[in-house]
Specification:
The protein contains 7 helices and 6 strands. Helix 4 packs across helix 5. A 6-stranded mixed beta sheet has the order 2-1-3-6-4-5, sandwiched between helices. With 216 residues, the protein is α/β, with parallel strands linked by helices. The radius of gyration is 26 Å and the shape is elongated. The protein is 31% helix and 15% strand.
């Protein structure tokens, strides 16, 4: 059983939150976390790389010089891969790197990632986080008060809040996601995780991320 301090927007402790990380995930599998992270990163790849073969580069097909009698090695066209400006011998063409792991495996990986944040003391619980409108300066002030201004942080809310999202999207190293969009990559990448009490209630009850959130 872990006891996490609950703080307000000024960094003052206002309560305690008891949570059993084993209820979120009975164990942490490094292999499953690795597989999930690699999948999400692969899905982010554009795959737009392209090199030209000798049939695609510009140039003549004419033989450079006669076959015999010149004293040089025999040579064909200028577009061969051994000559400057020629094609590439083993071309790389556009491809789709995306693939999917089983849904239940991704769900377990998300829960394992959240448990690791709790066990490692990298989760900060705030009683509430609400802005009247997009206020980047206010979000920066809150993060500074909580000691999160000099590190990468994932801000997690119970529901999608446009004001909070817009307040944090321009801050370097800050990501804002509602509970239902969490996945193993988004949880593990930042050094710290700032979660509202309502969001942590959802995580505790198990009504949170499905592990299928797309990473684009």
């Amino acid at each position: 059983m872990a006891t996490l301090p609950i703080v307000d927007e000024t960094g003052k402790e206002v309560g305690k939150y008891e949570i059993d990380s084993e209820q979120i995930s009975d164990r942490i599998s490094k292999q499953l976390l690795h597989d999930a992270v690699v999948m999400y990163q692969a899905n982010q790849r554009q795959g737009s790389h392209n090199t030209r073969s000798r049939g695609e580069v510009s140039g003549t097909n004419k033989k450079m010089y006669r076959q015999k009698g010149t004293g040089h090695a025999r040579a064909g066209g200028k577009r061969t891969n051994v000559r400057r400006g020629g094609g590439v011998a083993r071309t790389i063409k556009p491809r789709d790197y995306s693939y999917r792991l089983p849904k239940k495996a991704l769900q377990r990986a998300t829960r394992m990632a959240i448990r690791s944040k709790i066990d490692d003391g990298e989760m900060v619980v705030i009683d509430q986080l609400s802005f009247e409108g997009p206020k980047t300066a206010q979000m920066a002030k809150v993060l500074k008060a909580l000691g999160l201004d000099a590190t990468t942080t994932l801000v997690t809310t119970a529901e999608l809040d446009a004001a909070i999202y817009k307040s944090g999207r321009n801050l370097p190293g800050v990501e804002v996601q509602p509970v239902r969009q969490l996945n193993a990559l988004s949880v593990l990448c930042p050094n710290r995780m700032l979660v509202t009490k309502d969001a942590l209630d959802k995580i505790k009850d198990g009504s949170f991320a499905n592990g299928q959130a797309a990473v684009s």
